[in-house]
Specification:
heterodimer; A: 491 residues; mainly alpha; 73% helix; globular; B: mainly alpha; 2% strand
């Protein structure tokens, strides 16, 4: 069992440990969860550092025959694309644990589900066998269902079931796609599928049908308009840790799946539908941004901003060229950091002020200068201001989309530039309403955030600038993977 | 000698008679239960150690082969679990304790003969042994609900038997034989439309036993009214035997390469789509756990019929290892869930879903068992139910049933809604009475074992799949 398998299953083992842990003390589960997530982060960093960038390809591969009857195996490995997302997930898991310090009801169960969720997400990114991929993908709904329905807020049970049904609906089609693909090729193994020429196999199931069946699962998760209606409820009703993982890590599963499976296996189909998806990406960006502008509740603003930003991922992916894909991958990492910081910051604000409406907050910069500064960093990132990670990512996406060979790519790109304007409007509006303006009497005695909050929000803020100023940190890892993908469309 | 081939059945019949006699001598429930368990265990040993691969018995009335041996073992395990689980139901059945056990064994005898049938007549007799035993068992509580369920089941069952016989008459008229082997021979290379009509009528009668739409009307009432161990037995036992006998009779007698298989295969595929969709839609409204499980069972009949359809479309002349895997995983899930339901409903005195509230706190172990069982029925990964569905879906696509597979996967999403509702009530609901629930030893043991079995088959499905494949296909 290699280091990658240990990274995948360590959180699950932690969850198992928590579920048999005796005692009712709330501190111990939290400490265990923190230790496990931190250890996983260390392992992920080791993976990130030791990935051979000159060699590229899938590394840290573990392969074990699993169900020979249907030619499926336990097959995991990482390339640059998955490696950066695994590292992001591990980082966000630590943040999520730290941001859940106030959980007092059933802490053992809470942290156990959270750890299990982490295992599933890392498993999705690492799977090189489509059946294994699907299993991790489907399994992830269980921890999230419990997390949202038990520790969420507002109409938590309804949001939880909504999330589960949407996800299962998407993954039902995905399973159909995977089975159809298996029937066509006789294998679930991604590396083998990459080397299969689909055009040579004629069996009656059209390639486009398989492409869209597979895409359905990813479209719900990313989400792509019009499959987004679960998002605002789920994001805003989930507990903080759930929102961080959902928006930060889980939505990336959608983008990752599209790039790895839909594009990697069906390059020609993807090319013939690229205009459609670039168009949908623009709808994501502008529609999401416009709704975010109209929201009154801070978590909903962030939820819609996340929806809008995922449009950039989609736009970059369907540029079908190296720079666009790199931009999409960068956007995934960058958005994970930004949205993590925003949700964690918003949770603190909501808890301290007792309201989630931005027009009932105000003048908080006076009482909480540090929190204000850190949230502002995230806002800068979301707006795509130079020196932030959002800037490099979005510029790459725009460059990629502009030079894409799809019909109307240039017009689409120009329209999507409105997204930057919208992001600036809703982000600045939010920061203004929350932190500036007249100081309210009732908030006069609010203390600033404590040292633990400073630490984890600070880490994310540092991450945003690090990626913004030194994107090579990630792009060097991404390069072989992206190049391998971009070559499918001739560069 | 021929008798040795049906040793497991002989042991069961002898144990049933022994129970009736023992009841005359002593009325201690523990003696009755012991005889039943010892009989089932002995029969299980006989069935497991049997190495018969393909043997016509009694002039071909019965055919002992891999498929029938596998089903015998599965049904014995189910019946054993029912007997053990019913120890927790003694209070409500004590007046007819011996009769109940004798009937469990008699119906088991019928069910064991069903997948072994080599002749339409023996199939019919086996089915009737099972059905009549169940009519009595369902009405055993003697409450109005229970009696109504029994009467309803008997009336519809009678009609089903008539339809089945009518179909058999057509088949006999077209081929001149009731032996499956001879029917198969005489329907080649061409078959008459009378044979097809007969086959479809026979199918309708058999689908009654399996509980498929549109022959499902009796099922929810019977499940609700029957004593819960009988419900468990109906669901994990007679349903599976019903599907197994369809697979046997149709694959062996009516699956000639001339196209008969494609005809009934497509009919089964359509019925399968109707069954799972209608079952799901009706399940959404249920508030009684036994009724809900009845509809969920109908849905699973639909999934299993996919595999039956692929037998017809693929021209297979024997049972199918993927179908067996599905049956085994379904049986495990039903054993886990129903045993837990028996234990819980006895203690809370209600079988309404909302009264399961707070189970997670009142008994984490029972909650875990219920959850594993329900997740397996839902088809969530890492449970046997997921692998079972996956195998069936792959063979559906293999036989050109992509449309049916898409209907099936969408149905799994619908079913998630009502399964998760149970989980939600158990996990989040506020119990009206917070006292802890206990899990008695014997039912606890089988429910824990079946829950572990579900997880084991979910992680390593190959163990059972390969075994079943070897037994069915390698003589």
């Amino acid at each position: 069992m290699g280091i990658l398998s240990i990274t995948i299953f360590l959180p699950a083992a932690g969850a198992l440990l928590l579920s048999v842990l005796p005692g009712k003390n709330a501190r111990i589960p939290r400490a265990v969860a923190l230790a496990v997530t931190f250890l996983t982060l260390v392992l992920s960093c080791v993976l990130f550092a030791s990935y051979d960038r000159s060699l590229g390809g899938f590394q840290f591969v573990d392969a074990l025959s699993w169900i020979p009857a249907i030619n499926s195996s336990y097959h995991v490995g990482l390339d640059g694309l998955s490696l950066s997302l695994v590292t992001l997930t591990s980082l966000l898991a630590v943040i999520a644990v730290l941001a859940s310090r106030h959980i007092t009801s059933q802490p053992k169960a809470f942290f156990a589900w959270l750890l299990l969720l982490q295992s599933c997400i890392i498993g999705v990114f690492s799977s090189l066998d489509l059946l294994l991929f699907f299993i991790f993908w489907e399994l992830e709904v269980v921890p999230l269902y419990f997390l949202i329905s038990t520790w969420g807020s507002n109409r938590k049970e309804r949001s939880a079931i909504k999330y589960v049904l949407y996800t299962l609906f998407g993954s039902a089609f995905m399973l159909a796609g995977i089975v159809a693909l298996y029937f066509t090729t006789g294998t679930f193994s991604l590396p083998e599928l990459y080397n299969t020429d689909f055009a040579m196999l004629a069996n009656g199931i059209p390639l486009a049908a398989m492409f869209f069946l597979l895409l359905a699962g990813f479209a719900v998760k990313l989400p792509i308009f019009p499959f987004h209606t679960w998002l605002p409820d789920t994001y805003s009703d989930a507990p903080t840790a759930g929102s961080i993982m959902l928006a930060g890590a889980l939505s990336k599963m959608g983008g990752y799946g599209i790039a790895r499976i839909c594009l990697g296996l069906f390059p020609d189909t993807a090319a013939s539908f690229s205009s459609l998806f670039m168009g949908l990406a623009v709808v994501n960006i502008i529609y999401g941004g416009a709704i975010a502008l109209r929201q009154k509740e801070i978590k909903r603003i962030i939820a819609y901003s996340s929806f809008s930003h995922m449009g950039f991922v989609l736009l970059g992916i369907f540029s079908l060229n190296e720079i666009g894909l790199t931009g999409a991958a960068l956007q995934m990492v960058s958005h994970g950091l930004i949205i993590g910081l925003l949700f964690a910051g918003a949770a603190i604000l909501v808890k301290r002020t007792g309201t989630s409406r931005i027009d009932e907050m105000g003048g908080l910069a006076r009482q909480m200068p540090v929190l204000c500064g850190l949230v502002f960093v995230a806002a800068i990132g979301a707006m795509g201001v130079p020196s932030s990670s959002g800037f490099v990512a979005e510029v790459s996406v725009y460059l990629g989309a502009f030079s894409a060979s799809a019909e109307a790519a240039k017009i689409i790109t120009i329209i999507s530039l409105v997204g930057i304007l919208l992001a600036a409007s809703y982000m600045l509006n939010m920061v203004m309403k929350v932190f500036f303006g007249p100081v309210r009497e009732s908030f006069a005695s609010l203390p600033d955030i404590g040292s633990v909050e400073k630490l984890y929000l600070g880490v994310l803020a540092t991450g945003i600038f690090t990626v913004g100023l030194y994107p090579q940190l990630i792009t060097t890892v991404l390069k072989p993977a992206i190049k391998g993908l971009a070559v499918l469309w001739g560069g | 000698m021929n008798w040795m081939y049906i040793l497991p059945e002989i042991i069961i019949a002898a144990s049933a008679l022994a129970i009736i006699i023992a009841d005359l001598i002593s009325r201690k429930p523990v003696i009755i239960t012991t005889i039943a368990i010892v009989g089932i265990a002995a029969s299980l040993i006989a069935a497991c150690t049997s190495t018969v691969t393909f043997e016509p018995v009694f002039d071909g009335m019965l055919f002992i082969d891999g498929w029938s041996r596998l089903l015998k073992v599965l049904l014995l395990v189910v019946a054993g679990s029912v007997v053990i689980a019913s120890t927790d139901y003694h209070a409500r059945l004590k007046h007819s304790w011996a009769e109940f056990h004798a009937l469990v064994l008699f119906s088991l005898l019928g069910m064991m003969l069903m997948p072994s049938a080599g002749n339409l007549i023996s199939a019919f007799i086996a089915i009737e042994i099972t059905s009549i035993s169940f009519f009595v068992m369902v009405g055993m509580l003697k409450t109005p609900l229970s009696s109504e369920a029994s009467l309803k089941m008997m009336l519809t069952g009678g009609i089903a038997a008539a339809v089945m016989l009518y179909g058999m008459a057509f088949i006999f008229g077209s081929t001149g034989s009731t032996s499956l082997a001879e029917i198969a021979l005489s329907s080649q290379p061409d078959f008459s439309s009378g044979l097809l009509l007969g086959a479809l009528l026979l199918l309708a009668g058999l689908l009654f036993e399996a509980g498929a739409v549109p022959f499902h009307m009796w099922l929810p009432d019977a499940y609700e009214g029957a004593p819960t161990p009988v419900t468990m037995y109906l669901s994990a036992g007679s349903k599976l035997a019903g599907i197994a006998v369809i697979a046997r009779v149709f694959s062996m007698g009516l699956n000639n390469p001339g196209g008969l298989g494609a005809d009934w295969g497509m009919a089964v595929a359509v019925i399968s789509a109707l069954t799972m969709t209608l079952g799901n839609v009706l399940a959404l409204q249920q508030s009684n756990i036994k009724r809900l499980l009845a509809y969920s069972g109908i849905v699973h009949t639909g999934y299993m019929l996919i595999a039956v359809a692929t037998i017809g479309l693929g021209g297979q002349v024997s049972g199918d290892e993927k179908l067996f895997f599905y049956m085994a995983s379904f049986a495990l899930a039903e054993i886990a869930v129903f045993t837990a339901v028996i234990v819980i409903t006895r203690q809370i005195g209600s079988d309404r879903i909302e009264d399961l509230a707070g189970l997670a706190r009142r008994s984490p172990l029972l909650f875990a068992i219920m959850s594993i069982g329900i997740f397996s029925l839902m088809g969530l990964p890492l449970t046997a139910g997921f692998m079972a569905k996956l195998f069936i879906f792959t063979s559906a696509v293999d036989n050109g049933l992509l449309w049916l597979m898409i209907i099936a996967v969408l149905n799994t999403v619908i079913s998630a809604y009502y399964y998760l509702r149970i989980i939600r009530v158990m996990w989040l609901g506020k119990p009206s009475d917070g006292s802890a629930l206990s899990l008695p030893k014997a039912p606890g043991l089988i429910s824990i074992f079946s829950a572990l079995g579900i997880l084991l088959l979910g992680i390593a499905p190959y163990l059972l799949l390969k075994l079943a494949e070897n037994i069915i296909f390698i003589p």
